Amino acid sequence: MEKNLLILAGDGIGPEVMDQVVRVIDWFNNNKKLNFTIEEDLVGGVAYDSHGQPLSDKTLEKAKNCDAVLLGAVGGPKYDGLDFSLKPERGLLRLRKELDLFANLRPAQCFDALTHFSSLRPEIISGLDIMIVREATSGIYFGEPRGIIEDNNGGRIGINTNRYTTEEIRRVTRSAFELARKRQNRVCSMEKANVMESGVLWREEVTLLHQQEYPDVELSHMYADAGAMELVRLPKQFDVIVTDNLFGDLLSDCAAMLTGSLGMLPSATLGKIRENGRPYAMYEPVHGSAPDIAGKGMANPTACILSFAMALRYSFDLGDEALLLERAIEKVLAKGIRTADLMQEKDVKPASTEEMGTAIINHLDGHQ
Length: 368
Ligand code: NAD
Ligand code: IPM
Ligand code: MN
Fold this sequence. Notes:
Blueprint: E1 3-10, H1 14-32, E2 36-41, H2 45-51, H3 57-65, E3 68-73, H4 88-98, E4 103-109, H5 122-125, E5 129-135, E6 147-150, E7 156-159, H6 166-181, E8 186-191, H7 197-213, E9 218-223, H8 224-233, E10 240-243, H9 245-258, E11 268-273, E12 279-283, H10 302-314, H11 319-334, H12 353-366
Parallel strand pairs: 1-2, 1-3, 3-12, 5-10, 8-9, 8-10
Antiparallel strand pairs: 4-5, 4-11, 6-7, 11-12
Helix pairs in contact: 1-10, 1-12, 6-7, 8-9, 10-11, 11-12
The structure holds nicotinamide-adenine-dinucleotide, 3-isopropylmalic acid and manganese (II) ion.
Manganese (II) ion binds next to helix 9.
């Protein structure tokens, strides 16, 4: 079967880290005969610069028709003043919404070589392997009413609405239970049922689905604020966390730092399975466009490369190849080859983005 990838490198460090992913894809094409075809297009600020929209209809069509989208990052200070509908971030949100990519899988694994790098004590994070399943097509990111309106006193009111339907909660929770069955069989659901009706419904629907379809999986519930605290107090207590769009955004950045750097955390955003057995899918690092380091060749490409490993696994059923790539990254880190975000010693020269990519490819070369 053909394997068509649409690469949307985007803004800031997006193109820099994506260049390394393209080298890795070329390696798999040349050495494992995987026959990936690549098309590239624009998203985010660069798309706005070129045709006045952060995601054109044409690009959206390509995204719907390819097997998997690989996205770099979007956004940057240059676009901060734009109307909301034109901001780079809307390009990404539109892709998630229109492809109906409801399950955003954000795995936080701590590589052995980095246990001493995290801001938490090594024993707290060594061997860490958790999966955050974040709902990605609904909630406060998309709920109506929304906007900024005038009040009667010359002031203004900003409004967003956290809205979830039964079906939206059930389908993302089902993804979490399915993943848990292949892992340690535990799911912790996080919301704020103590203050929000959407949280009450979330807890009720998760509980019901558990009783109806997944009684074999161990289920617990936590208020999301306590969950954030537990995530840094004792992260290894978790296996799979399922949560809504906004809480998932916050909790996954927090989980990223357990692994040492935001530059380490990949993600897969998955929708319905198509007739050919492949899901609608987009693979994107958790980090953003990092304007503070963009253009300097110092960004860590690992999150983006690990996102491609997730594509191998979740879109193309190539688990062995995914493992090969993940192991290569692990070995490179173990050798002490790191980008600046993973350096403590001031006197050691960090690897550049490209040097990190080269080290990973050299390792693949040696272990075909
Ligand atoms: P950010 O993730 O871009 O950066 C946060 C910090 O982490 C910065 O200090 C940055 O240098 C560092 N960092 C991030 N990725 C790194 C990497 N690969 N290697 C080394 N260091 C890395 O978040 P931000 O600064 O809050 O946002 C910047 C822009 O990115 C905003 O416009 C925001 O909306 C956007 N953003 C986009 C995405 C996405 O495209 N998926 C995700 C988050 C933020
Ligand atoms: C993420 C990002 C996005 C989000 C932004 C850029 C729209 O922060 O993927 O975590 O909030 O979902
Ligand atoms: Mn985020």
